[in-house]
């Protein structure tokens, strides 16, 4: 049920309640009070009830020094609930020493004097007292209710000269105070809790309780303060009748200790702040060492002397001490006839000598008091207590822990002693002050004024040595008998002696109890000493400057923990302290700024808004483009047809002479192995001439592929030597490196691999157009480009009218099959794409014939019909050249080397292979005699520039294709269409071809790759897209149904959920994130399938890997964004996930940003696995392992600090952790469950922006790694 608060106040006493009343107007407040509600004690309203309240409410601590009983009132309102209730201002120095602005203090005092303080009943009894003081002549009655150092101003305001005053700057004064006690007009006490319970009635303001910000936990004790790793106070461990619990404050919330002078330092020490020796002694981990905690205790003492009152006086049973006589060092008051029992009950036998104030005496006296067992509290003659109190005590004591248990009271040492002779230093001074006060304010007062007469004790005019009246003597004797009787019953207690025997006149002693000797100061001191007790006006155990900072009252060494009770005072409050305690509470509350509720973060909202805009724009743009394209096509259709016809006619007309495109000499290839270098190709020479078809033959292992790869510029491994002329450019493989051959050849050749890869969803036109766009760049004239592509299709036997829009077909990743081209048609399409490259040379693993396009073909034992179409033959055996020359010269070759002569056509190819195998077997490598025939002498390799081939000549060369290889193994198809012949001379396409050898700009290529991937992977593969989106939708609906409305919570308030409810929300979020991180796995087949196309296309050198990677990442980003929007639109409302600190749209957009980034990271992770790992299965295994571990490390299952060191360190690289943090922060920041973010350790980084930043970083890193992995995917040959 718990939730976090803006402020937690420990201790609902005088200061705590006042503080709560202020803070409750600024935020959610939890006030924790150890005791019960004050209304639980109706006894407080009748005098007979006081002893019982004292027994129940006031903790009984016995001062180790003096033996006086002391303690805190454990009840709502604290001391103000059962004290004497005199409203008196504390001295100004106190507020300035605390850094509290005096005008604020003035305002607070005035407020209290208006609300809780009432004019005390002023009756005969009070008048007697006041008049008696006036008789002294040196006491001045101040008007109004101003006290302490405020008196100065009051005097000035009343034109009283300060020069007449004493050393404090003002005269002895008589002050008639207001009170919070019941009066005739008001039978209810107004304790500090009145400030939030009822003060609004007086002030005519809105009720604080009705505002709903204040929660008061009664009978609940704070055990210790909880800090985070940065020493920031975040919560309080509590124990209540309901058991243990912890209450937390929000992120910048504050905890206030107002548990009084004993419990506040105790709580600090139990929480690890205090003297090291004490903390070590009780094995309390030190959070911050501070030797001052618990020191400087002041416990002001009072002397209790009772006067005999022989007559009933109006008001002698009502007021307690509303009339004060204040002199320079002491002050005194006379309280009503019921107060003796009251004081005796609190002080646990205050009327006993200190050494007799034992535990058992205290218990017995309490019992006697409760049941009136002591019997001297009766009607008729009675004792009227008169107290003399030191104003500025000097004695300092301390408190320390008795154990490490919160339930044990502290040990109190007040700096005094139980033996008068042991008094020294400040305690002796304080004692002397009180003795002086007794002499002045009791002895002198009684002897020089008519007070005793007015009380009915002696006649006003009785002389000093005249005997006491018989009535008085009788009263004193009776009361002494009663005391003695009581002493017998209360065996442990010895009441202060009443030396009546020697005390018969005012000249020897005064008729008080104990009787005060007038002339014997030694006895007087002893009697006063035995009558001393605590006033419960303690202060100083967490002194400002030592334990708390001045002004903020923040505890030194930690953050967000403050103290605002009387323990922070450096000096005791003059006369009465509870008003000062309340003023400190009020002013600290006033100066405390409200806790900001939830940080509005721009970044997530901007990010998600941007994504939404893009997603909305895409279909819009596509629709516009489609309409525009349709209109444009319609307009230009006629032009295109005529253009193609004229292009075909002009192409047919041209033919050019044969030109040598490439020559090579002594080309070898070797590989470094562990043992030694291994050569696989030896000193090959040859040439490629435009328009000629060259067969590259040899038995298996003859290094045909090595030679073909070297010539095609595709060789990526091995050490190549030899000399080349490539289109007139001389390259020495040793000097210039292979890359130069690669660059030179790649731009002018087409390589047709054995296995072709096409997107099944592509049309034939799109496939060829893609290659043309990649190699020829952006068309200057789109119709010309279309005509060219149509002609490429026509040329390979795929009439464009029929095939241009035909889908290639095949198996889509994911299992769907699209009907399309036959195997042969696919082969032809490969040729068409090769033609679109406008190559000088085609390197083909299969056979074809393109006139004026040189073709080098690896061919295994071709049929005679096919073989006769070749112009040249390169025959290899174990990497060595057996034959290199025109087919026409084969008869000569046979004649020269073999007796049997050249075989028939149909045996020739087979026989050549047999010859090569035999030749290979006959000779070992060391005895190679050179080629049987290599008529390459006419192709010297020159490095002179004059020998360079005229490129212009080749560009003018016609490529005339007649697919006359019909019926061959390749079955390219027939060519009955005369328009399928191409000529590149002086026609519009040729103009394009002027630029064709310059690489198109990367931006263009990127655009083409992007568009192609968009169309084929998403728009044309709509089933896959819909399927993936459907799984997001279905899963989101299911999760929404399972966790339906968890965000509402049965006990949630307008500012959020309880902790228990929020914990359920955290678990829900784990499943929400599962959607983001696990559903991308459905894309693995798609990614892996795409990888094949990518590898094949990259091997053809069509584009760089990064272009594919980038377009893929961007497209997947858009897809995942769309998926995240769907997911968010379903889950968020179904689960009622909303952050009440913000408006619903802001809260939605922030969560959307978290889900978008999570989806992106999840998807890119899967993409990386698909690209980096060799198989789909491995991608699944690796991806799911990473995501599962990452989920486990997210903190949603177990806070990281509860993990061992290794997983604890791993959490920082878990992307799900940051997603979880972003999502939870977006939901809980600023709410009543905000602190769960810290408790669950979802706080590094602590903002949504911070976590999204990390996720963006991870996303970019994964994208980069994917790019790198894709670079490595390039074919190695
Ligand atoms: C018997 C008696 C008579 C007094 N007479 C007078 C008088 O006549 N005039 C005068 O001005 N002053 C009087 N005082 C003193 C005055 O009441 C106190 O100085 C004043 O109340 C102190 O205020 P405080 O806020 O510092 O602490 P308190 O008012 O004592 O409040 C401390 C509160 O903290 C609570 N608390 C303590 N520990 C815990 C914990 N671990 N968890 C939760 N709650 C806790 C206590 O139950 C208590 O309610 C008297 C005090 C007593 C005890």
Automatic annotation (TrEMBL):
Keyword tags: ATP-binding, Membrane, Nucleotide-binding, Transmembrane, Transmembrane helix, Transport
Single GO MF descriptor: ATP hydrolysis activity
Protein origin, superkingdom: Eukaryota
Subcellular location: Membrane
GO CC, one annotated term: membrane
Segments crossing the lipid bilayer: 602-628, 1025-1044, 1064-1088, 1109-1134, 1146-1171, 1178-1198, 1252-1271
Entry annotated with the keyword S-adenosyl-L-methionine: no
PANTHER family assigned to the protein according to its UniProt record, in alphabetical order: ABC TRANSPORTER G FAMILY MEMBER 28, PROTEIN SCARLET
Protein name, as recorded: ABC transporter domain-containing protein
Organism phylogeny: Eukaryota, Sar, Stramenopiles, Ochrophyta, Bacillariophyta
């Amino acid at each position: 049920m718990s939730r976090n608060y803006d402020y937690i106040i420990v201790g609902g006493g005088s200061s705590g309640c006042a503080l709560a009343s202020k803070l409750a107007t600024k935020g959610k407040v939890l006030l924790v009070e150890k005791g019960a509600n004050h209304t639980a004690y109706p006894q407080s309203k009748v005098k007979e009830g006081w002893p019982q309240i004292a027994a129940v409410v006031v903790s009984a601590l016995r001062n180790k020094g003096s033996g006086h009983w002391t303690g805190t009132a454990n009840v709502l309102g604290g001391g103000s609930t059962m004290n004497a209730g005199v409203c008196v201002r504390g001295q100004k120095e106190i507020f300035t020493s605390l850094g509290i602005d005096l005008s604020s203090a003035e305002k607070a005092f005035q407020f209290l004097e208006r609300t809780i303080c009432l004019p005390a009943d002023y009756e005969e009894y009070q008048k007697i007292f006041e008049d008696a003081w006036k008789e002294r002549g040196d006491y001045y009655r101040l008007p109004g209710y101003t006290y302490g150092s405020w008196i100065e101003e009051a005097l000035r305001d009343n034109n009283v000269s300060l020069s007449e005053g004493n050393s404090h700057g003002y005269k002895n004064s008589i002050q008639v105070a207001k009170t919070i006690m019941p009066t005739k007009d008001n039978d209810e006490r107004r304790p500090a809790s009145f400030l939030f319970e009822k003060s609004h009635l007086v002030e005519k303001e809105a009720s604080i309780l009705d505002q709903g910000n204040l929660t008061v936990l009664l009978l609940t004790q704070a055990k210790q303060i909880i800090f985070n790793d940065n020493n920031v106070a975040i919560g309080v461990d509590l124990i209540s009748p309901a058991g243990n619990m912890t209450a937390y404050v929000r992120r910048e919330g504050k905890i206030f200790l107002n548990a009084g002078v004993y419990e506040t330092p105790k709580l600090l020490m139990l929480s690890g702040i205090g003297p090291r020796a004490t903390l070590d002694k009780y094995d309390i981990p030190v959070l911050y060492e501070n030797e001052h905690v618990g020191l400087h205790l002041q416990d002001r003492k009072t002397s209790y002397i009772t006067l005999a009152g022989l007559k009933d006086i109006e008001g002698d049973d009502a007021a307690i001490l509303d009339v004060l006589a204040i002199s320079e060092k002491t002050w005194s008051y006379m309280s009503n006839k019921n107060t003796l029992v009251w004081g005796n009950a609190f002080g646990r036998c205050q009327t006993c000598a200190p050494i007799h104030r034992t535990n058992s005496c205290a218990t017995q006296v309490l019992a006697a008091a409760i049941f009136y067992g002591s019997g001297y509290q009766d009607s008729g003659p009675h004792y009227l207590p008169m107290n003399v109190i030191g104003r500025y005590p000097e004695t300092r004591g301390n408190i320390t822990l008795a154990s490490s248990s919160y339930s044990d009271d502290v040990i109190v040492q007040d700096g005094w002693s139980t033996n008068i002779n042991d008094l020294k230093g400040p305690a002796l001074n304080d004692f002397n002050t009180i003795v002086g006060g007794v002499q002045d304010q009791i002895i002198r007062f009684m002897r020089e004024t008519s007070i005793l007469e007015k009380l009915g004790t002696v006649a006003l005019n009785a002389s000093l040595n005249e005997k006491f009246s018989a009535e008085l003597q009788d009263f004193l004797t009776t009361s002494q008998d009663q005391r003695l009787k009581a002493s017998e019953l209360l065996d442990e207690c010895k009441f202060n002696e009443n030396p009546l025997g020697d005390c018969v006149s005012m000249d020897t002693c005064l008729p008080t109890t104990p009787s005060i000797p007038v002339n014997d100061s030694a006895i007087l001191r002893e009697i006063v000493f035995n009558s001393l007790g605590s006033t419960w006006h303690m202060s100083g155990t967490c002194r400002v400057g030592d334990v708390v900072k001045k002004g903020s009252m923040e505890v030194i060494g930690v953050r967000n923990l403050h103290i605002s009770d009387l323990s922070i005072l450096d000096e005791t409050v003059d006369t009465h302290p509870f008003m000062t305690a309340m003023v400190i509470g009020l002013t600290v509350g006033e100066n405390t700024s409200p806790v900001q509720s939830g940080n509005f973060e721009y970044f997530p909202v901007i990010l998600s808004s941007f994504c939404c805009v893009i997603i909305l724009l895409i279909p819009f743009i596509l629709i516009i483009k489609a309409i525009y394209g349709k209109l444009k096509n319609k307009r230009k259709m006629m032009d295109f047809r005529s253009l193609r016809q004229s292009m075909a006619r002009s192409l047919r007309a041209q033919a050019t002479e044969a030109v040598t495109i490439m020559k090579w000499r002594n080309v070898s290839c070797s590989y470094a192995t562990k043992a030694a270098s291994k050569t696989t190709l030896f000193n090959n020479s040859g040439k490629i001439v435009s328009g000629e078809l060259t067969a590259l033959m040899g038995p298996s292992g003859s290094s045909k592929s090595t030679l073909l790869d070297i010539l095609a510029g595709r060789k990526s491994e091995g050490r190549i030597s030899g000399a080349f002329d490539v289109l007139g450019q001389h390259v020495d493989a040793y000097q210039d490196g292979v890359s130069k051959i690669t660059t030179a050849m790649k731009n002018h050749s087409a390589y047709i691999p054995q296995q072709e890869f096409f997107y099944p969803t592509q049309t034939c036109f799109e496939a060829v157009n893609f290659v043309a766009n990649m190699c020829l760049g952006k068309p200057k004239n789109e119709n010309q480009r279309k005509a060219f592509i149509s002609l490429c299709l026509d040329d390979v036997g795929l009439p464009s009218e029929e095939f241009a829009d035909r889908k290639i077909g095949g198996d889509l990743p994911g299992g769907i099959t699209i009907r399309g081209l036959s195997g042969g048609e696919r082969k032809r399409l490969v040729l068409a794409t090769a033609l679109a490259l406008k190559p000088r040379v085609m390197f083909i693993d299969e056979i074809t014939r393109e006139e004026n396009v040189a073709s080098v073909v690896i061919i295994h034992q071709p049929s005679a019909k096919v073989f006769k179409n070749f112009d040249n033959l390169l025959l290899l055996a174990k990497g060595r050249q057996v034959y290199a020359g025109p087919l026409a010269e084969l008869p000569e070759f046979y004649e020269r080397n073999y007796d049997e002569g050249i075989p028939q056509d149909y045996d020739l190819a087979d026989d050549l292979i047999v010859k090569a195998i035999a030749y290979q077997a006959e000779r070992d490598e060391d005895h190679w005699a050179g080629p049987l025939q290599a008529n390459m002498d006419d192709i010297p390799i020159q490095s002179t520039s004059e020998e360079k081939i005229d490129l212009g000549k080749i560009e003018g060369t016609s490529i005339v294709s007649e697919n006359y290889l019909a019926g061959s193994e390749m079955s390219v198809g027939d060519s009955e269409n005369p328009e399928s012949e191409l000529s590149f001379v002086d026609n519009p396409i040729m103009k394009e071809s002027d630029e064709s050898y310059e690489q198109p700009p990367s931006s263009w290529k990127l655009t083409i790759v992007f568009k192609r991937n968009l169309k084929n992977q998403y728009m044309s593969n709509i089933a896959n897209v819909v399927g993936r989106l459907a799984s997001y939708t279905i899963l989101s609906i299911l999760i929404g149904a399972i966790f339906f409305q968890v965000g509402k919570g049965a006990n949630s308030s307008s500012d959020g959920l309880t902790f228990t409810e929020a914990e359920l929300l955290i678990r829900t979020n784990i499943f929400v994130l599962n959607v983001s991180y696990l559903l991308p796995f459905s894309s693995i087949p798609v990614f892996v399938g795409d990888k094949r196309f990518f590898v094949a296309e990259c091997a053809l050198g069509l584009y760089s890997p990064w272009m594919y990677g980038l377009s893929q990442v961007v497209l997947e980003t858009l897809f995942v964004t769309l998926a995240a929007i769907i997911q968010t639109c379903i889950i968020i409302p179904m689960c009622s996930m909303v952050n009440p600190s913000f408006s619903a749209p802001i809260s939605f957009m922030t969560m959307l940003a978290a889900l978008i980034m999570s989806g992106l990271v999840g998807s890119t992770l899967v993409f990386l696995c698909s690209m980096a790992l060799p198989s789909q299965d491995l991608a699944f295994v690796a991806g799911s392992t990473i995501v599962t571990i990452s989920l486990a490390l997210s903190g949603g299952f177990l806070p990281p600090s509860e993990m061992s060191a290794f997983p604890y360190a791993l959490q920082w690289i878990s992307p799900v952790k940051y997603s979880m943090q972003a999502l939870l922060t977006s939901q809980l920041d600023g709410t009543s469950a905000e602190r769960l973010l810290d408790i669950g350790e979802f706080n590094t980084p602590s903002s949504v922006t911070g976590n999204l930043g990390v996720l963006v970083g991870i996303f970019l890193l994964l994208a980069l790694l994917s790019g790198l992995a894709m670079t490595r995917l390039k074919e190695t040959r």
